[in-house]
Amino acid sequence: MGRAVSATTSGELLTGCVRDFRYAARSLRESPGLTAAAILTLGLGIGSNAAILGVLDCVFLAPVPYANPDRLVVVALYNQTLKYATRWPCFATSREVRYSPFLRLMI
Predict the structure, then answer these.
(1) What span, in angstroms and rounded, lies between the C-alpha atoms of 28 and 21?
(2) Which of 4, 5, 12, 98 has its CA at a distance of 20 to 30 angstroms from the CA of residue 81?
(3) Does residue 62 or residue 91 have the better pLDDT?
């Protein structure tokens, strides 16, 4: 049968936590290789998570640094037959657009 669970006071709970902490510290001291691997794994995981979230915050969540971001547009050329859009850097280099009067107006 299992042990009966009794109500504990905050002092007994704190004593149990301290006892568990001492046991964990003693176990980590006995195996330094495992301790180093665990610390390295935690450090890499936390560091990479912070870096990825920092990039996502800057790219997706931060407001656009322009005066009127709601008035920004994307210039694209849409091909009706192939059903895809080519953005400005791609079609600005093509021969037919490079020499068009529209491009001369933009420059």
Answers:
(1) 11
(2) 98
(3) 62
Give the least confident one: 4-13, 46-55, 91-100: 91-100
What stretch of H or E contains 84? Answer: strand 84-87
Alpha-carbon distance of 27 to 34, in angstroms, equals 10
| Phi/psi of residue 54, nearest 5 degrees | -65, -45
Surface-to-core class of residue 97, CB atoms within 10 Å of its CB (0-12 exposed, 13-18 middle, 19+ buried): middle
Q: How far is it, in rounded angstroms, from Cα 52 to Cα 45?
A: 11
Residue 44, both tokens: 């890499």
Specify the residue for token string 């001369």: 104
Residue 102's pLDDT band (cuts 50, 70, 90): low
Residue 52 contacts residue 59 (beta carbons within 8 Å): no
Q: Are strands 76-79 and 84-87 parallel, antiparallel or unpaired?
A: antiparallel
